[in-house]
Amino acid sequence: MVAMCVVAGIQVLTLGTQENQARNKERVRRATAPDTSSHEAYYVGFFHPYPNSGGGGERVLWTMIKAIQERYPFIVSVIYSGDNIDRDTLVANARARFGVDIRAETVFVVEVTRRWWIEHKFRRLTLLMQSVGSVWLACQAVHRFCPDVFVDTVGFAFTYPLLRLLTARIPVVSYTHYPTISSDMRRAVSSREAGVNNDAAVARSATMTALKSAYYAGFGHLYAMAGSFASTVMTNSTWTHNHIVRLFGNPAMTRVVYPPCDTAALLALPVSSQRLPFVVSLAQFRPEKNHMLQIEAFAQLLAAHPELAAPPSEEDALQLSAEALLQLAEEAHSASGANRDRLPAYPILIMLGGARNIEDEARAEELRQAAQRLGIARQVRVVVNAPWPQVMRWLRHAKVGLHTMRDEHFGISVVEMMAAGLLTVAHDSAGPKLDIVVPAIRCTTGTDDGTSRGGPAMPSAAQAEAFLAMRGDKEEDKEEETPSFPVGMLATTADEFARQLAAALAVDGVVATAICQAARDAVAAKFSEHAFFTAFYKRFGPVVRWLDIQRTDE
After folding, report:
1. Among 164, 401, 392, which residue's Cα sits nearest to residue 278?
2. b/e for 135-173, b at 16 or more Cβ within 10 A?
3. Cβ neighbours of residue 307 under 8 Å, at least 6 residues apart?
4. With contact defined as beta carbons under 8 Å apart, do 318 and 310 qualify?
5. Does pLDDT of 250 surpass 60?
6. Among the residues of 72-125, which ranges form H helices?
């Protein structure tokens, strides 16, 4: 009896009165226009406090909404947002950043406050405090509008038992980009390895390490319990899937659904020998993206290959802004060929990324300062919050792509660079290693401890010609399987990245063409928007049918 009273009290405090929810639903109904000619309206709530950000998670959110609009026009997508931005602006920004066209009439935005709770880096117990904050935001969200389906697209598993506690009639759909806690994080703490998730002061102390290990173990059990309340779980990669299945323990309801990439526009970009020696990085300026490794690797590249350093005579070109460099490249490749002689013949690192807040902006500035300290600032450009059309322009002209995050759960920007025809160098771990850059070119090993000392084992021109010939035959005979060929390059240390970059900048002709074509074939087959729609419908369709059965039984 006491337990029932407690649950009833939580329901009233969280959802409010029936009159409150009726008013909320009427407000949403008046502001939206779903097609109810053949089906009553359903309301799907998307828990995504950062819908206006420009990362891969936001692309998943908006593409998911687009998929729902195309197959289920009677569904209204309700976004629980902490950005304090109106619906039309969010929809316009999604179109500008990702090229995703959304019909605003079936979208509604519910604002939640105190988002700082899930983004603040607490001095201690950050994972726990942020998880508590996510529950607080979810309480606000459902108080202001209780949906028919709750979709979490950011991975806040502690919200799942809250929804099931409020009512068992609301299915919880999870799209998990990465686990809140993983065995890799626990291993880093126990081995006293300093990093993004383990402060150096903790790593130096045996006592603090023991306490943090116990904290992680306890938090892991709570996280696993919370995740078990999800009705269906989608993960973005094999790495994430393996961790989530071990934690949530529901393999039958957990499937990999690769994030969407707008490959149609990217695949249309030409694979050309006229591409410039630009090395493009595409990742939000978050600490885990490890942009500093890119600066270090690029500095080692220029130190090991003085011929790649810009000569003093190029001072005018070195002063050009990123936008001016891009404009120069487009003029040179236009029909008139204007300013072709002004194009740089040396590599320039172009770091493109989104900044969510002032901390991300500060990290971008730290990269500029690091490049200055290392004496490579003349060949480095840091571009913050570039709109998607500008990113596309960079991808059209650049030759090499670079991504350095360790244990990147998926790596949508790696996919985008490969689709655009760049020779892509990524970190040899997690998503790029298991799902994307497969098979890969790695640096050769030449020591007893297995560390790499040689250059990358590039395929020969004969192998490349054989692959392209077989690929051409496959287009005529669809049943014949194309032989395996490397789709990109993987590295771990700054030294390895430097050597891979040197090889990527040097390779040309048929070998470069074969790698790019193999990468594009893989991307088109696995990571297109169409492939995402197909996989998403297989997971979301049963949820809609379950709602239909519920309505029929009422």
Report:
1. 401
2. bbbbbbbbbbbbbbbbbbbbbbbbbbbbbbebeeebbbb
3. none
4. yes
5. yes
6. 87-98, 116-119
